[in-house]
Amino acid sequence: MTMAAPDDATLDAADGATPSPAVAPAPMRAGERWSWTPYLLSLPGIALCAVFLLVPLAMTALLSLNSFSFYGGIADVWKLDNYADILADSYFHEIFLRTFRIAALVTLFCAALGAPQAYILRRMTAPWRSLCLLIVLGPLLISVVSRTLGWALLLGSTGLLNQGLLALGLIATPIEFMYTETGVVIALIHVLVPFMVLSVWASLQRLDPQVENAAMSLGAGPTTVLRRIVFPQIVPGILSGSIIVFALAASAFATPAIIGGRRLKVAATLAYDEFLNTLNWPLGATVAILLLLANIVIIVGCNRLVERRYKQVFE
Amino acid sequence: MPYLVLDQLTKRFTGWTAVDALSLTVEQGELISLLGPSGCGKTTTLQMIAGFLDPNAGRITLNGQDLLAKKPNERGLGIVFQSYALFPHMTAAENVAFGLEMRNVTRADRDRMVADALKLVGLDSYGDRYPRRMSGGQQQRVALARALVIKPNLLLLDEPLSNLDAKMREEMQIELRRIQRSVGTTMILVTHDQSEAMALSDRVVVLNKGRIQQVATPQEAYDRPANAFVANFLGRTNLLPGLVEQTAQGVSIAVADARWPVLQSVPPGPGALAVRPEKISFVAEAGLSGIVQARVFQGTQWLFEVETAAGRMMVIRQHDGGVLPNERERVMVGWRPEDMAVMPAQEAA
Fold it and tell me: Comparing C-alpha atoms, which of B33, B36, B85 is closest to residue B211?
């Protein structure tokens, strides 16, 4: 009754209309002509990258190896003393821990807010969709300083939020938002949520709109469709959005500087202070390099995890 | 008692009516095709049966039960989508098992039913594959197995073969017909491909602009189209204007210098007749005279274009060794009265 089970090769070959998307580009064979053209053509890009990114980075890395004294200034030595100092001092531990705690919290809240937001946006109809997308992207259109100062006005102890809550009788004393992690996290979520929305949006675009109907026709209710069908397919979008948000939150400067102030230092403001207040450039450079390394380790690690988990499904 | 009843089903979108008072009955075990050009309302009709769209008016009953009162996930229908709509993050077996999971079928039963369904569509050894790693034809089979495994009351197929190449399409047509015979599920097939509809269906429903043009067996619709739209949509046809008259010998239609008796009941007055090119032959007398404008050899057949007083006609003759007229030759064409469909003039517009 069943037809003869077609073997793999014949079916794949017979069905020429839909070639398998998983075909990897053929590796270069021996004897193929080596061409300089692609490298020459990408030279301007490489040059730009080198001059504006790699050289300053290398200089910072070299600077971090120098030593500094209040009376002698920067000495041209090549030692790892600065790294040893930071790794041994609990003051720096606290700042780095705070930086990554804030980044992790911001990432978590951005995912929790941004993913549903992107899904709702996709289900909206034409005029509302673009309007709401504009509102979501709004924070990116405003200068970071004026946006953060706006949050300072809202969150301050005599700010609008506290006054409102006091007037409603919900709280007896003003909640401290300024110079606290809560305040920094709130302000960072506001500006970083668009990156999550855009990233999830991109993965929703790849979603076949009929897939939800298919699940429904098989008997799945709305929450089951979301949990079993939509969510697993946008996880890669959420994870890549998380990587962007985490990197930006961990290296954010203006928001922690204004909302967090001098009392609540994070790695970026610490590096700034070392450079411009203490004038200890080598130590500042060390902080910057350590922040970069930690970011790279976390992001590359996450990316590996995502790729391994979803290789079979989404490559 | 009819199994599926669509009663005065209407769907209006802003500015236009996609489906206009559509009524149709389908018997149990029947394979019926909704056939028409894009925008004729066939997919809209399917979506209303599936529950993805709500009709503005009308009723749908399945096996005596009101279908519109149920949510899409409670209707128990199987649907094969044009894009297949497989779940990309699940293997073929997990895809097929999804509907059974939703029905709380036990693990052991589920595994057995999934294996049976995959076997039915000839994919026994493909259960562990992800859709991305399968060809279009294989994905199509998984989609079919996924819809059939839940033993649906009704299987809806939305242009299921349109994404396959010609060779695969033919294979799947035969496959689909075989599966339909063996499981006996009532199926509704939506397609714009008339040859597909004719090859697969027990009956075809020809739709245009949201209205039913004709409901008939494929052969009936081909041989005796209800109007010019059906005649043109189901293959090539010659449509000639004429005058239907009541004479002493009965009703007949006059076309230019020729006259044919009318076997259908058509009111007297201006009318039209439709006749298929392959039903026309060259005759010695009692036909429509004309001049052969062109003749083209097509291997198994000859294609003629004949200019007559009633208009330009297309004639197909088999390449069977018989003597056939040359270009520029004066000829007379004729056909049997039962091979033509006569309709009032307004149906021929």
Answer: B36
Number of domains in chain B: 2
Determine contact: B138 vs chain A, CB below 8 A: yes
- Whether B196 and B101 share a structural domain: yes
Q: Would you state the pLDDT for residue A176? A: 86
Domain CATH number, residue B321? 2.40.50.140
In chain A, the domains with their CATH numbers are 47-314 (1.10.3720.10)
Distance from CA of B193 to the nearest CA of A (A): 18
Residue B53 shares a structural domain with residue B193: yes
Query: Has residue B229 been placed in a domain?
Result: no
B145 and B32 in one domain? yes
Mutate which: B89, B114, B176, B179, vs A, most A CBs within 10 A? B89
Residue B299 maps to a domain: yes
Contacts of B109 (CB under 8 A, 6+ apart): B100
pLDDT at A313: 57
A217-241: string of b/e by CB count within 10 Å (b at 16+)?
bbbbeeebbeebbbeebbbbbbbbb
Domain that holds residue B154: 4-223
ipTM of the predicted structure?
0.81
Q: Which residues of A touch B87 (CB under 8 A)?
A: 211, 214-215, 229
Same domain? B199 vs B75: yes
Residues 6 or more apart from B321 whose CB is under 8 A from it?
none
Nearest alpha carbon to residue A140 among A80, A194, A206, A213: A194
Q: Could you tell me if B226 and B214 are in contact, meaning their C-beta atoms sit under 8 angstroms apart? A: yes
Helix (H, G, I), strand (E, B) or coil at A97: helix
pLDDT band at A83 (very low <50, low <70, confident <90, very high): very high
Question: B257-295, pLDDT tens digit by residue?
Answer: 888 999 888 888 899 999 999 999 999 888 899 999 999
pLDDT confidence of residue A19: 41
Nearest to B215 by CA among B45, B22, B21, B71: B22
pLDDT in tens, B20-32: 999 999 999 999 9
Asked if pLDDT for residue B1 goes beyond 60, the answer is yes
3-state class of A133 per DSSP? helix
Contact (CB<8Å) A18/B136: yes
Same domain, B186 and B265: no
- Confirm whether pTM is higher than 0.80: no
**Looking at B192, B223, B254, which one is the last position of a domain?**
B223
pLDDT tops 60 at residue A14: no
pLDDT at A30: 55
